[in-house]
Amino acid sequence: IEVNPRVSRSSALASKATGYPIAKMAAKIAVGLHLDEIKNPVTKKTWAEFEPALDYVVTKLPRFPFDKFENGDRTLGTQMKATGEVMAIGRTLEESLLKAVRSLEVGLIHPERPAFAKLSDDELSKQIIQANDERLFYLAEAFRRDYTIEEVAELSKMNPFFLDKIKHIVELERELAAHKADLGLLAEVKRYGFTDEEIAKLWGLHADQVRQMRKEQKILPVYKMVDTCAGEFASDTPYYYSTYESSTESVKSDKPSVLVIGSGPIRIGQGVEFDYATVHSVKAIQKAGYEAIIMNSNPETVSTDFSIADKLYFEPLTLEDVLNVIDLEQPEGVIVQFGGQTAINLAEPLANRGIKILGTSVEDLNRAEDRDLFDQVIKSLKLPQPEGGTATDKAGALAVADKIGYPVLVRPSYVLGGRAMEIVHDATELDNYIDRAVSVSHDHPVLIDHYLVGKECEVDCISDGDTVVLPGIMEHIERAGIHSGDSMAVYPPQTFSQDIIDQITDATIKLSRTLNCIGLMNVQFIIHDGKAYVIEVN
Fold first, then answer.
1. Which CATH number fits domain 371-386+452-538: 2.60.120.260, 3.30.470.20, 1.10.10.10, 3.40.140.20?
2. What angle do CA 268, 274, 278 make, to 5 degrees?
3. Largest CA distance in the chain
4. Are 279 and 298 within 8 A, CB to CB?
């Protein structure tokens, strides 16, 4: 049917799952070498003509974008609906599955959607029969209601072996709930991949307390090497995953190191640009004489090739998993700005625990992300911006919209990729939007701006804290309000006067210096009646 001169996602996964570099081998075969003439680059001793042997379990979970398409049809069939995937490695299927669930970044740390507890048994059975993107969570809910493996197998037509593993996770939840602060049980559930946060929830504690208990009892993760040969031959692959056993294969080197956090699964609005930035930052770190360590959970990116960084940790990007790697490696600092929203969200909790964030400081990141703080920056610089406000409940949202006048552009704060962004024309529509699209709370405010009709444009700049370099301005072709990830842009701008270009340049340099940006920064503008209004800074 077709021949593609590239590596498919499934072969990329096989490569990352085994550590066997399929693409590199294929390239050598293509130039005429035979497998018995190619050294396996992992062991550097054996030849490439052997099948990888694994002493761990790898789980891949697709990342579906239904959080961005609320009205999309969630049923799964032959049509491809995933935008990316995550991979997780563990010593047991349970450990690997639970790691994969928290790598997905769908707001869950465990296969449990609280809303599913309200479903009737009929509704639950129906959801298990027809595969959809949340099937794993429906299966776990069924076992919480004491469905038998046979019943679930009959409904789902899935192999009982896998259902038994999901049931085992639910059984361990019950054990935890029944035996609070049981240290023997703590060691057991950690071996099966439970997070400190989930254990804390079942024990009525805070995750930091569980972490403290673990440290006192020396229940700590060790790191095992992905070596393609299950330890049969000596290897020196700098590629590791965590598990709870006795001996570790990852040894901290004497060289000072820097940890770079990757961007997790590819999803709409966040893709290959972070991978590119991660890889180039690693090259720069190495050039500066440091050991570069990458942590990521996405199998189809260059950043998770073990030959890129000095060390690669294939792990979920949660606070607990990142802190575990930091405990072992003791890096000089952590770089979060090349991992998109995933890594940025880790900046504050890491900084609060005394970890040094390299580049732009957490305080300055917050000044760009937090609406009220950002408003103060814009006002102090006397820059024009669309009138707007922030609301933490429905009444507040209606009041803000009333004050600034419809139409308004509404979106949740602290998200990437234009998710749940809409143009709203009256109070009824706004009321409906808040019920449907977002859960407004003190932690998750909604941003409401007066919608200006005009041209949108954006600028990326790079700064060392003093010099600010603007490679150019991108003019959007679609009207304002279409998310930048969904629109075309032309570079350099075609319709802007020199005056507008000067306004944009001036505002970008001022913002970069005021926000003490060290590294990359993106500013989005709207050009309305000959004036460049600042929409946001990332």
1. 3.30.470.20
2. 155
3. 75
4. no
Question: For residue 227, how many C-alpha atoms fall within 13 Å in the half-sphere facing its CB?
Answer: 18
HSE-CB for 16 with a 13 A CA cutoff:
30
Nearest to 270 by CA among 472, 83, 446: 83
d(CA 237, CA 228): 9
Tokens representing 471 are 């490679």
Pair type for strands 291-296 and 257-261: parallel
Residue the block writes with tokens 């994969």:
100
The H-or-E segment that residue 105 falls in is none
Question: What's the sign of the alpha-carbon dihedral 13, 14, 15, 17?
Answer: positive
Q: How far apart are CA 146 and CA 142, in angstroms?
A: 7
Amino acid letter at 515?
A: L
Residue type, 506: D
Tell me the domain boundaries of the chain.
66-216, 252-358, 371-386+452-538, 388-450
pTM of the model: 0.87
> Helices 149-156 and 135-144 sit at what angle, rounded to 10 degrees?
150
Task: Report the SS3 class of residue 284.
Answer: helix
* Residue that is written with structure tokens 């290959």 in the block: 272
Closest to 321 in 3D by CA, of 309, 332, 313: 313
Give the type of residue at 102: R
Computed from CA positions of residues 126, 127, 128, 129, in that sequence, does the dihedral angle turn out positive or negative? Answer: positive
pLDDT in tens, 339-368: 888 898 899 999 999 999 999 999 998 898
Residue with tokens 């569980």: 210
- pLDDT at position 414: 61
Stretches in the chain below the pLDDT threshold 50: none
**Predicted local confidence at residue 511, as pLDDT:** 96
Closest CA relative to residue 241, chosen from 328, 167, 353, 358? 328
Cβ 496 vs Cβ 457: under 8 Å = yes
A 10 A CB-CB count for 105 gives 21
Decide if 270 contacts 345 (C-beta within 8 A). Answer: no
Peptide bond into 407 cis (omega under 30): yes
Q: How far is CA 445 from the centre of its chain?
A: 21
The residue written with tokens 């073990």 in the block is: 306
Tokens at 19, concatenated: 């550590």
Cis peptide before 492 (omega within 30 of 0): yes
What's the half-sphere exposure (Cβ side, CA atoms, 13 Å) at 182? Answer: 14
Architecture per CATH, domain 252-358, reads as: 3-Layer(aba) Sandwich (3.40)
pLDDT tens for 436-468 read: 766 666 667 888 888 888 899 999 999 998 999
3-state secondary structure of 151: helix
The CATH number of 66-216 is 1.10.1030.10
- What one-character DSSP code corresponds to residue 478? E
Cβ proximity of 310 and 274 under 8 Å: no
Between CA 237 and CA 230 the distance in angstroms is 12
